[in-house]
Amino acid sequence: MIIIGKKYLQPLPVFLAIFFLIVQVVTNLLLPNLTSDIINKGIAKSDLNYIWAQGGTMLIVALVSWLAAVLNVYYASIQSQRLGMRLRSDLFEKVIKMDESAFSDFGDATLITRTTNDVTQLQNVYQTALRMMLMSPLMLIGSIFMAWNLDHNLIWVFIVALPLLAIVAVVNIAMVMPRFRLMQEKIDKINLIFQQGLTGVRVIRAFNRDNYEIEKFDRANKDLTKISQFVMATVAMLGPIMTVILSATNLAIVWFGAQLIGKGLMGLGNLVAFLTYATQILLSFMQLTAVMVMVPRAQVSAVRANEILNTEEKIVDPENSESLSAPIEMKFIDVSYAFSNAERPALSRINFTVTKGQTLAIIGGTGSGKSTLLSLIARLMDVTSGEILIAGRDIRSLSQYNLHEKISLTQQKAVLFSGTVKSNMLYGRPEATDAMIWTALDIAQATDFVKEQGGLEMTVEQNGGNFSGGQRQRLAIARTLIKDADYYCFDDSFSALDFATDTKLRTAINSSPQFQDKIKIIVAQRIATVMNADQILVLDKGEVVGLGDHASLAKNCSAYQDIMRSQLSEKDLESMGISLKIEEVTEGDRS
Ligand SMILES: Nc1ncnc2c1ncn2[C@@H]1O[C@H](COP(=O)(O)OP(=O)(O)OP(=O)(O)O)[C@@H](O)[C@H]1O
Asked: Does the Cβ of 208 fall within 6 Å of ligand 1?
């Protein structure tokens, strides 16, 4: 909490908040004394002038106190809200810049809770801190001091009451503190189930798992409620217990104060003032306890927020980034990548070179490392070993901005943003004209349905929910194509398209002058999608098992032949001279 406070609070407004708080405390402490004087010296002696004069002073002191309270609340609120805003922004920026591996280590649900709920906890505690957390101890000490000055005889009442209150508070806090981290984790869990429920709603219904998911959510919800109820009930118990102690203390003061007045050892005004100080002392103590309960919860939130803020930024720009001027070319030199939590590397010693104008297709079974390879090109993660060069430069020697300017990527899962078709296209190229957008949509075979459904201003709902899978994919491809890049990467982007559209789309890309000189990298599962590429990289369990054009791989690469056998007709295979029967491929061929 201190780290976050130091980072996000501004010294001057915090100083002013504390200053006005002290003014408020001092003026509040003066008021009972002034009351005592009015009773002892004004009312008791029927001195009207004194009552007026002292009453006027009281009014001014009360006004100053009110003004100080307003200004304190103002600065405390401004600072705590600012802290929340800055912290949220920093967390969001950190999450956006997080490399894919760290992102999946945290998980979406906890990142959402930490950026929202945890920040709110911290915001609240700082708002309270700049008011009560300082006011309560100051009022407590100040009131004890004033009460002691007023009358020594009754001070023992506090010597009994305060330790009693302290014991109650400590026991209470000790009971709830361990539950705070658990509470935040349960909120994470609820977020996770809710989020999965929302994104997977169709799967849930199709598998008739509605009740299972509802029960799962109910269980998590009940878990959170149980812990929250315990915490809230335990904290709420503090109020009545403390009120009993407060009432007993007042009773004792009145009882023993009356005896002292009877003996002439104390004035009535002093007793009234003493009672006010007693109330201030005990209320301050209660407030302090309430704040002390908030602190451990906020501390849990601070730790969780700091975990994100302190995540090492693995993808960093070099101090002096190089610029690209050499001809378009991409080279993988002994590239390997291993996820931190994985048993085997996702990619091992990958080597290939693609030159200007060429298309490289990447094919391989599921989990063979195709998406990982594209993520490395876009530097969403950094290679574990080896080098990726574009135009002769290691991509780590370029600024990420420069690199991303050169690369245009469609991911396996088409991502659209809520807005319009046009706003999604402008995401790829902000300065694009309508004509440019239509050209990109044309190449991506998306013109027909965009025209039919309302044109460029057609609404795109969250995650492109109002489009079919294939339409979403085509819009995502159009967004990739509209960008003026040098390297166009498509991660299994054509898989949601029917064969005819797939063919038309690739033909349109290849025949468009705009892409003639560019490098195209196409990840695909279908032989038909890759067979016309200049080079085809065949991956198996993260290793290259074939690299060449279709004709050479069809002849020499057993893994490629296996894929062909699973997808092409007997006639097609025979025309290529490939046997249909797997047994006929000898071990020698395979190696
Ligand atoms: N975040 C991650 N943490 C750990 N392992 C991962 C992670 N993402 C992927 N992997 C593993 O890395 C390997 C390669 O995954 P990748 O997504 O690159 O495969 P792919 O060839 O694109 O598969 P598919 O065709 O099914 O999309 C797989 O074994 C996968 O389990």
From this structure: no
579 in ligand 1 pocket by Cβ < 6 Å?
Answer: no
Query: What is the residue whose two structure tokens read 């599962």?
Result: 525
Q: Which of 335, 339, 366, 530 for mutating ligand 1's site (highest number of atoms within 8 Å of CB)?
A: 339
Give the closest residue to 263 by CA, choosing from 145, 144, 149, 151: 151
Cα separation, 155 vs 86, in Å, equals 47
Residue 456's alpha-carbon distances to 203, 410, 426, 467, in angstroms, are: 31, 20, 11, 14
| Token pair for 307 | 């975990």
Cβ atoms of 422 and 478 closer than 8 Å = no
Tell me whether the CATH fold assigned to 2-309 matches the one assigned to 329-548.
no
User: Is the shortest distance between the CB of 355 and ligand 1 below 6 Å?
Assistant: no
pLDDT tens column, 49-105: 888 888 899 899 999 999 999 999 999 999 999 999 999 999 999 988 888 778 878
Over the stretch 373-392, which tens digit does the pLDDT of each residue have? 999 999 988 999 999 999 88
Report how far ligand 1's centroid is from the alpha carbon of 318 (Å). Answer: 28
Return the CATH number of the domain spanning residue range 329-548. Answer: 3.40.50.300
Note every long-range contact of 238-244, with CB atoms under 8 Å and residues 24 or more positions apart, other chains counting.
238/168, 238/169, 238/172, 238/286, 238/289, 238/290, 238/293, 239/286, 241/168, 242/165, 242/168, 242/282, 242/285, 242/286, 242/289
User: How far is C-alpha 425 from the geometric centre of its chain's CA atoms?
Assistant: 26
- What are the Cα distances from residue 518, in Å, to 94, 348, 475? 33, 27, 20
What span, in angstroms and rounded, lies between the C-alpha atoms of 437 and 188? 41
Q: How is the chain split into domains, by residue range?
A: 2-309, 329-548, 550-591
Domain at 2-309: CATH code: 1.20.1560.10
ipTM over 0.90: yes
Ligand 1 center to residue 372 CA distance, Å? 6
